[in-house]
């Protein structure tokens, strides 16, 4: 595998799909440590130069995960990345994640420098036709087949939201294991939806209704909701909070009025440091899910929910 991967996309779920493949291969090749750096405008990029200055041909293999928060690396970061690309450590895997960056970032000099010595994965937003393919593939992974009319109903009900769609597909695989999902089964599944959805949790989290968030979280855990789905929801809310705290506006963020009002209210109550700290805790929980750390992921999610 390459020593550098750059993943650019608008949807955290699409990013995660690629990360899972990269990290699974990395573990097979002996990468046992993962360090995550959350980047904002105040970040110090010294970790890149210190890493390249201390090449250790016999040391442990480690993953250096760099997450850009809704914006490029800036001039200092871009220069640091270009310098890093000139002196690679064979025992270090650099994975740079850019979620929600402007499309013109793909043609940036720092992206081209990293792509020259690594792999660029740029994922365009899903069109209606590619969304259908994505749903069919997800269903196949869970050993079910969704028929055309049922697939169309699913898209209409979830409005193309990937988190909601994936939650429904997982539920279908539990209710109708190894079966073909026709329109009747889809209607029954959607009508008999769970008491709480992933969005009930994320809405409670973003409005800082801790007791409600914990109640929903426990319900989702009992129903078998995967930890990764919770992490994606939390990341989405932090991304939205970060955007609103920077711009003072909810422009460009989709959601009902009460959700947007909660974003504005919470962005005024929570400082940037608290959001950054939450990002770092999510990165740690994600490492636990992927087997790089040993804490129970559900415990980590609960602790983050209680402390935010």
From TrEMBL:
GO terms for cellular component: DNA polymerase III complex. InterPro entries: DNA_pol3_clamp-load_cplx_C, DNA_pol3_delta_N, DNA_polIII_delta, P-loop_NTPase. It is an enzyme of class 2 (transferase). GO terms for molecular function: DNA binding; DNA-directed DNA polymerase activity. The keyword Nucleotidyltransferase applies. Keywords: DNA replication, DNA-directed DNA polymerase, Nucleotidyltransferase, Transferase. Belongs to the DNA polymerase HolA subunit family. This is DNA polymerase III subunit delta.
């Amino acid at each position: 595998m390459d020593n550098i991967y750059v993943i650019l996309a608008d949807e955290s779920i699409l990013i995660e799909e690629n990360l899972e493949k990269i990290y699974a291969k990395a573990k097979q090749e002996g990468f046992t440590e993962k360090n995550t750096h959350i980047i904002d405008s105040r970040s110090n990029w010294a970790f890149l130069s210190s890493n390249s200055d201390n090449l250790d041909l016999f040391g442990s293999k480690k993953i250096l995960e760099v997450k850009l928060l809704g914006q490029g690396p800036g001039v200092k970061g871009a220069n640091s990345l270009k310098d890093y690309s000139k002196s690679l450590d064979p025992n270090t895997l650099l994975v740079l994640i850019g979620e929600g960056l402007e499309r013109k970032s793909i043609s940036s000099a720092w992206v081209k420098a990293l792509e020259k010595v690594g792999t660029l994965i740029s994922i365009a937003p899903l069109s209606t036709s590619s969304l259908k393919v994505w749903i069919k593939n997800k269903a196949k992974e869970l050993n079910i087949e969704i028929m055309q009319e049922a697939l169309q109903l699913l898209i209409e009900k979830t409005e193309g939201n990937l988190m909601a769609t994936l939650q429904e597909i997982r539920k279908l695989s539990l209710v109708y294991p190894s079966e073909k999902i026709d329109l009747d089964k889809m209607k029954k599944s959607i009508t008999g939806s769970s008491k709480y959805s992933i969005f009930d949790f994320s809405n409670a989290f973003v409005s800082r209704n801790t007791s409600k968030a914990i109640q929903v979280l426990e319900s989702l855990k009992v129903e078998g909701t995967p930890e990764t789905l919770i992490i994606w929801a939390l990341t989405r809310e932090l991304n939205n909070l970060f955007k609103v705290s920077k711009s003072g506006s909810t422009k460009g963020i989709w959601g009902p009025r009460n959700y947007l009002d909660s974003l504005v209210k919470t962005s005024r109550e929570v400082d940037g440091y608290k959001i950054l700290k939450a990002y770092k805790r999510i990165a740690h929980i994600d490492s636990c899910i992927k087997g790089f750390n040993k804490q129970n992921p559900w415990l980590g999610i609960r602790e983050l929910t209680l402390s935010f």
